[in-house]
What does this fold into?
Amino acid sequence: MVVKHSVTTSLARALLGIVLLSGLTTGLALLTLMGSLRDAETVNIAGSLRMQSYRLAYDLATQSPKLSDHIAQYQHALQSPALAHLERFYIPKDVRQQHQKLLRSWQQLEKNITRQQPAIYRQQVADYVTQLDQFVLTLQRYAEQKLAVVVTISLSGFVAIIALVLFSIHFIRRRVVAPLNHLMAASINVQQGKFSYPPLDVDLPNELGVLSKSFTRMSDDLARLYQSLEQKVAEKTARLVQANRTLGILYDCSQALSVSQIDRQCFQNILNILYKSENLISLKLDIGENTSSWQLTKGSPASAIPWHNVALIQEGITIGHLSWQCEQPLPHPQLMENVANMLSRGVYFNQLQKQHLQLMLMDERSTIARELHDSLAQALSYLRIQLTLLKRTLPDTATPRCWEIIDDFDRALSDAYVQLRQLLATFRLSIQQTSLKEALEQMIAPLKAQTPAIIRLHCALSSQSLNAQQQVHTLQIIREAVLNAIKHAEPSQIDIACTVTPEGKNLIRIDDDGVGISNTEEPAGHYGLTIMHERAGRLGGTLTITHAEAGGTQVSLLFPQT
It folds into this structure.
C-alpha cells in the first residue's frame, strides 16, 4: 500500500517549521539588534555636536587659536561612521532627511566661521542647535522604533511558534494518538474475543491508515475463523454429548440383556429405557415370523404424528421392526439402528437359549425314555411272554373263570404296553426348531401318516411369546389332542389354530369334525386328559374340551404370554 502522507514526514515538517520559524524570528531580532549597536554612539555624537557648536561660537567670539582644531573635530564628528551609515537605503527617510538638512546647515555655518562673522554665526547657531535637537529626537525615535520591531518580531515569532506547536499537537492527536487509541481499544476487544469494536479510520493517508486497514482485514479474518472454530467446537461438543448419551443408552440396553435368561421383560426394559431417554410419544417392537408376530409397546400412539421405523435384520433377513413416534428433535438415527441391532441380537440369543433349553429338556426326556424302555418296557415284555407261556400250559379243562382272569390280565397288560409306547413316543419327541410354527409342522408330520384326515395348521404366535418349557408343554398338549382325535373321533379334518386374544393371551384351539366327545371323564387306567390339564396348569392357563355344535370336538388352551 502507498502512504500519501507519512506520519514521520508530517512530524518532521512540523518540527522543521518550528525550527525555521524560531530561527527566522531570532535572526530578524538579531539583525535588528545588530542595527542598533551604534544607536547610542550616534545619539552621543549628535548630542556632542550641540556642545561643539556652542564652543565654536565661543572660539569665534574670543578669537581662540584652537578654532581650527575645533572645526576639524566638528568635521570629524559630523562625518563619523556612526552618522555616515544613516545614509543607507534601509534607514528611515525622515532620519536621512534630518541628516542631510543638518549637513547643509553646517556648510552654511562653516562659511560664516571661515568669513569671521561671529554675529551671523550666533544668529544661525540657535537654529542649528534646534535642528540638532530635532535630529537627536529623530534618532531616539528611530532607536525606539527598532526596539519595537524587535519586540514585535519576538512576540510574533513566539505566537507563531505556539500556534505551530498547538497545530502539531492537534495534528498528532488527530492523526496519530486517536488512531493509536482506537487500534489499542480494538486490539483489546480482539484479545477478549470481541470483534464488534468501533470502526477504525481506514482512510487516513498515513501509516496508521494502512495499519488500521490491515488490522480491520485481519480482525475480519479472525472473526470468521473464530466463528468457524466456535461452530466446529459446538458441533464436536454436541457430537461428543450425543455419543456419550448414546453410549449410556446402549450400555443400559446391554445391561438389560445381560441376564441369564433373555425373555419378554428384557425387551420391554429396553423399550422403557429408549422411551424415557429419547422422550418418545410411542414406541413399538414387532418381531414377525411369517404369519406369526410378537409385539411390545410403550406409550400411547398419536394419530397425527407419523411413524418412523428401522428394520431388525438377522443374517440378512428382516425379522421385525422397531417403530416410534416423536416430536422434534428426532432421535439420532445411529442410536436407533444400534438399538435395533442389539434387539435383533437379543432375539437371536433368545432363540439360542430356547433351543439350548429345549435340547436339555429333550436330552432329559430321552434319558427317561431310555430308562423306561430298559426297565418297565422290558418288564412288560417279560410279563407278556410269561402270560403267553401260561396260556399254553393251562389245560383245556381249566375253568371259565380262570380264562376270564387271564384275558383281563392280558388286556390290562396290552393297555399298559400301549400306554408305555405312547409315553415313550412322547418322551422321545424332539424339537429341532426354535420357531413354534416350524416345531409344530415337524411334530405334525408323522401324525399325518397315521390318519387319512386333513390336518391344517394356522400359527400366529411368535416364538418369543413362549419360553422353552412353555413351548414343550404346548407341543405335548397339541400332540395329545391330535392323537385323541385320530384315535377316537374318526375325523376327516383337524384344524390347529394358534392366535393371540385381544387381551394379549395365547389361545390354542384344536378342532375336528369327528363323532365328538361324549364324556370328558377319562376312563380308568387312562391318564392322557389328566396330563393335558396338568400341563395347562404349568402354563398358568386353562384347558377346555367341549363338543362342537356342528359336530366334532374342540380343545382350547388359554394361557398368558411370558
